[in-house]
Write a structure and sequence with these properties.
This protein is an all-alpha fold. The chain is built from twelve helices and no strands. It is 78% helix and 0% strand.
Length: 322
């Protein structure tokens, strides 16, 4: 009998996310190396697409690294994997809805769907991380501050344009009827980040979302930095976004490290209890010491919980503990 190791990423979400990584790599390579994907875009929007394509490569590297470790049962890897998928879903909504129709359209839609359903299929059975209170609050503060800062930035541009009675200048430059980043951020992403930041202070599921959202924030800020550099933006603006990316990445790393240590400690306690239980069950056997040593080795593998259940059932069938 084979059971999946607790916390190990399943085959279905792993396969879906691997397909998303391959397609995202393909579309980004075509975007950067061929003229036709963005031939119908304005110079401004084409430049932003190039920056997004370059940012995608970083996200794909992070995604693959998280995927490989999550398949081996790493809770830390699963959180990194989830944050990278949120980034890909965000980015490919924009590709699918705003880039003019080309042969890459279905690939854009596929990456969006694969990213979302990878997360959906991975949700059941994911272990909940316990984070140190002080670190959890620090992460929540940074995530909330980032959401508020971007909300104020977008609203200042929108309200200024409304007061002037004309669309924002960047819309004419990009050739768009509305800014998709403003729509997605103000309607979904930034409120979601604020909700997680507030509710995570009390622990629970929201606390488990802190690290993935900080990974997402770091990747998105890094992508914006690339776009700003391509467009020759002022160094001060680039520095601010680079600081957001760095702080988000560092805090995500600290949260992941602390959460993984707590998770390993809990697994260790459970494993010790299982070894003790199996040792008691086998205490009446002539080769008791050897059986316990064998059990300790067996229980360190992914089949450990199943072995304990089998041993308990076997002893129960014999009439209980000796």
């Amino acid at each position: 009998m084979t059971t999946r190791r607790p916390g190990r990423l399943g085959v279905v979400p792993a396969g879906l996310s691997a397909a998303a990584a391959v397609l995202a790599t393909t579309t980004s390579l075509f975007g950067l190396l061929s003229a036709w994907p963005y031939a119908a875009e304005t110079a401004n929007w084409r430049l932003q697409a190039y920056g997004q394509d370059l940012g995608n490569f970083l996200a794909i590297v992070v995604l693959v690294a998280g995927l490989l470790t999550a398949r081996r049962g790493s809770v830390r890897g699963g959180q990194v994997w989830a944050g990278a998928l949120v980034y890909l879903a965000y980015a490919f909504v924009i590709y699918a809805m705003t880039v003019h129709f080309t042969a890459l359209f279905l690939a854009y839609v596929a990456v969006l769907g694969l990213s979302v359903y990878s997360l959906v299929f991975a949700l059941p059975g994911r272990p909940e991380l316990r984070l140190p209170r002080r670190l959890r609050r620090l992460g929540a503060g940074v995530l909330g501050a980032t959401a508020v800062a971007f909300a104020l930035l977008w609203l200042s541009a929108i309200l200024g344009a409304l007061a002037a009675g004309r669309p924002p200048a960047d819309l004419a430059e990009a050739g768009l009827p509305a800014n998709p980043v403003h729509v997605i951020d103000l309607a979904l992403v930034l409120p979601g980040m604020l909700i997680v930041a507030v509710r995570s202070r009390r622990g629970g599921l929201a606390a488990a979302l802190l690290a993935p959202l900080l990974v997402f924030a770091a990747l998105m800020a890094a992508s914006i930095v690339v776009t700003l550099l391509l467009g020759g933006a002022p160094a001060a603006v680039v520095a601010v976004l680079a600081a957001v990316a760095l702080v988000s990445a560092v805090l995500a790393g600290l949260l992941l490290r602390a959460g993984s240590a707590e998770h390993r400690a809990e697994l260790g306690e459970g494993l010790a209890l299982q070894v003790g239980e199996l040792a008691l069950l086998r205490a009446g056997d002539p080769a008791g010491e050897r059986d316990v040593e064998d059990a300790q080795r067996d229980l360190s593998g992914e089949d450990g919980p199943a072995l304990v259940r089998a041993a308990v059932g076997e002893r129960s069938d014999r009439g209980g503990l000796q």
